[in-house]
């Protein structure tokens, strides 16, 4: 049952996408391509974020080559200044500003240390921003600032992140556990998306678990639950407790290891993805040496994903196929992609996309 590869389905436009870490956008403008749109981020005089199409309407010079000055973003070619609404507010040497002297503006906001950009043409919905469990709460250590550029379509990323089974084989030295290879994956849905999960019972701790918590010579029960929230947020809920311990929420929180690993997938183009990540944990909260080790392990894990995603992208382009057969672990990824297709189709039908989208395959 061969399935054709198609990188032209388009994107969900009416949503917030992570565009940059707030620390990346300070005194200088910052360029990033998001959903195929070239966008420049900059700080307004009051410190809030502006987001504009990265083209001056005069000669199309990239505004990201300019500077934050004169109350807005000043083009580095002829000095035209634009505010966060995309309006030109000043032109050197002339008082009259043509009505065409404006560029497209995007709504932008800051939350969780990230800058988010709304890419659609309807009123931004603040309630559709991700909700990060544990963020800003007592008893949790935050590790953020994670970013990788992945040379693959965001759908391949989603398939990877909704697939707990691959961790056994791709991530042997970090989060993988050979004891998990024959444990089936369960799938459930909820109001914001999907969950693919399994408990692996009475097994040795994974390499990373052994570095994270003192389980002695004992065995553990390990939950790994991959959540996907439409259209572009993934988080993995990991709980590791001594084998046989009751799985109450209190024991999951205090009996061993609990971590929430968040990933924000922002399509750059049809063939590349911005991969932002942050991690919350309830153990070894003030251990900076351990945190450095953990960060290195997570970066290694995500880099392994990046290598595989890039390889798959290349083979799909070479063959024109997404896959030639299907197996049981495909259920959650297929469900996630179908939900995205429905969102894209709904936007197309309503005409509220912010851009033209390709038809969704039947």
Automatic annotation (TrEMBL):
Question: Which key words tag this protein in UniProt?
Answer: 2Fe-2S, Dioxygenase, Iron, Iron-sulfur, Metal-binding, Oxidoreductase
**UniProt GO MF annotations:** dioxygenase activity
Coiled-coil annotated spans: none
Q: In its keyword annotation, does this UniProt entry include Disulfide bond?
A: no
Is Nucleus among the key words of this record? no
Q: Which Pfam families match?
A: Rieske, VanA_C
Report domain Rieske positions: 16-117
Family annotation (PANTHER family): 3-KETOSTEROID-9-ALPHA-MONOOXYGENASE, OXYGENASE COMPONENT, IRON-SULFUR DOMAIN CONTAINING PROTEIN
Q: What is this protein called?
A: Aromatic ring-hydroxylating dioxygenase subunit alpha
Q: Which organism is it from?
A: Sphingomonas oryzagri
